[in-house]
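Lab manual, section 2.4: Encoding a predicted structure.

Procedure: take the sequence of the chain (280 residues), apply the prediction step described in section 2.3, and record the output as structure tokens. A sample record is shown.
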Amino acid sequence: MQRVYFDNAATTPISEEVINAMLPILRGQYGNPSSIHAEGRSVRAAVEAARKAVAQSIGAGTGEIFFTSGGTESNNMAIKCSVRDLGVQRIISSPTEHHCGTHAIETVEKVNGVEVVWLPVDAVGRPDYQALESALADSGGKKTLVTLMHANNEIGTMIDLGKVSGLCRQYGALFHSDTVQTVGHFPINVQETPLNFMSGAAHKFHGPKGVGFIYISPETPIKPFIDGGAQERNMRGGTRTCTASWACQSPRTRHQRNERTRGAHLRCPQLFERKTFRNF
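Recorded output:
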């Protein structure tokens, strides 16, 4: 019996396009991207091309994208560095966030004494926007970070990213969104919908596991989360994984080409399923 894979919210299979993009680098571009010789420079060029592609896909500048090991690291970086470097004293979030988010929040609550406000959610997991606005209005002068995932990884519920962004701007709060489930599938533009931090992971849009990125707004610069060398423009120590970074761009490019078709599949899954299962 032929098996059909439906667990794409957990991870997606690597696409042939990504594999084909990675193979030449795996076979022939083995230099360290931090090295100044030709082998290193060619790999660094590939990393920077990937960074540019990721930046363009969300309307960001290349200097605002930093590669990480995935969504968990990016979320921890945004939450913990906001407290450490930006003076955040209060965090507003939802109890239905991914564990890497809730556990990071619980850590800064315990270690740094950060006040935490957990928003109520409705029957399908949507946060209460009136409660969010009330919590923002009642900050008591404390610098506040709102951290809400764009789409839930278990139930698929999406927040109104624009609405939350607008409320945060209105009340002077920082905004971080875990967009791991949506980036590469839904259009996001940080110029149109301002965020301070945004997290992504390649394996959720048909790239490899073990690589992700964080978008950091120039309005809210933070210090490195992982100490080490001067990689990632002094923001993240550790030798860069060129093939994985390069693979970040291929699914995005493909998504941009197929956005209309993929969007139709997402908006009308029943029709998509009927067409698909005719082949089985």
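Check your result against the sample. The longest strand covers residues 174-178.
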